[in-house]
Structure prediction request, 552 residues.
Amino acid sequence: MVSTFADGGFVQSLRARWLRSSSLLCVGLDPDPTRFPPHLAAKPDAIKTFCCAIVDATHDLVCAFKPQIAFFASAAAEDQLLDVIDYIHATYPGVPVILDAKRGDIGSTAEHYAREVFERFHADAVTLSPFLGFDSVAPYLAYRGKGAVILCRTSNPGAAEFQNLDCAGKPLYQWIAESVATRWNDTGQCALVVGATAPRELAQVRALIGDVPVLVPGIGAQGGDIEATVNAGKTDEGGLMISSSRAVLYAGDGEDFAMDARRVAIETRDLINRYR
Amino acid sequence: MVSTFADGGFVQSLRARWLRSSSLLCVGLDPDPTRFPPHLAAKPDAIKTFCCAIVDATHDLVCAFKPQIAFFASAAAEDQLLDVIDYIHATYPGVPVILDAKRGDIGSTAEHYAREVFERFHADAVTLSPFLGFDSVAPYLAYRGKGAVILCRTSNPGAAEFQNLDCAGKPLYQWIAESVATRWNDTGQCALVVGATAPRELAQVRALIGDVPVLVPGIGAQGGDIEATVNAGKTDEGGLMISSSRAVLYAGDGEDFAMDARRVAIETRDLINRYR
Prediction:
């Protein structure tokens, strides 16, 4: 499977993008029509229009975009998801697109999810659950150059329930971090997810994984601490994709909502960079 | 949210179905067009036609149907998935439909996945990952009467990698079984997934969860042992949804493929019942 990047795969492209954009900000595309500006609400392709306006207003401020497939699926808007991803590739080449889908299934089923993500939706990377072990991730890695962004320690209130359980002397999330960074990452296609609400865990993960990229949700609406996140997870080249969705997308609800989003994205990028 | 069952929710309906059908067999609908009989392959709605033929040929032999969403998503066939589920509800009322989707995401995203599964696709239950903890499952339980079928110990070769890790004296899958059967199951909407490839684990899980239903994939193509599965997991009323997909669906590849599927479904149901 040919990568959409001329200069290598997802991880190499992300590294180039960190350098070129001087940004660790990832804008998450979680389109919720009930929160759209009134002038968009009635349009038949409101989701696509909204997302592309956000992309246009923030593309120079981000290291990646991260559409969340649930928001498209709940609206039966798969066609608009494809349009948004294709729009990013065509208009802003070099900006990686991570499809946030958190898939996790047995190998024969994972082959179908991988086809959905990479062949149908043209994503550069996908978020995956590690719960079923390596053979549930391998079908995604078979798409050379594509990225597998594996959940390690999530940002939600209940994350610690199982992820922080002490397993033979260390918490589950550390077992995952070590497995992904070593045995799972022969081809250099892996990244991890650690929430901004868990900076202590992020520092421990970073110590285990070298320069493997980490996607960090949980700032903005979820209340994660940017200073603590950057200090815990940064590397010389960047190391982090710090994702904000709702705080950027819904910064304003007027006709100039995209400029409000741009303003919040600039503030967030600059705040992140203050601590690099 | 009104249940599709007149007599209560998913779990009650499953119990009634065990009694009425005298079957613990669940037929999994994993439609793979590359394996369809040649006379179907060229049809524009081949997936729907194939699945509905399987449903017609096996409806009286099953306690539930389990469509796997990845097989529809990889073919951009969401409309056919809805048609198949609506066909089952309309033609064979009382047969529960579990959408196998293995979702697992933070609460605000889970609300969208729950809407997709229950409002868009009209499923009676959905498979979910426990990895993010209870708040990632709660939005599904908010649909009263709908079922949440939680992964506990999966059937794939790599399942033990994390699920069998010893966590403070017991394996992770036992922590999950206990949590789901107690704290998560106040409303009686939960079930668990334990693979037929792990009968020892299934027996341990059954000892922890009382009569909570267990979905058991992994017989048929995956090689799980039916006798060991039934002995490990049965309850007086049934207790198990033993799922077979490929072995039933692709029993034949001629024009009478559905009758071949029926023959294998009968054999499998009868083999299961021999050990009850």
Q: What stands out?
A: Chain A has a mean pLDDT of 95. The beta strands of chain A are 25-29, 64-67, 98-103, 125-128, 147-153, 166-167, 170-171, 190-194, 214-216, 240-244. Chain A touches chain B through 54 residues (CB under 8 Å). The CA atoms of residues 162 and 172 of chain A lie 7 Å apart.
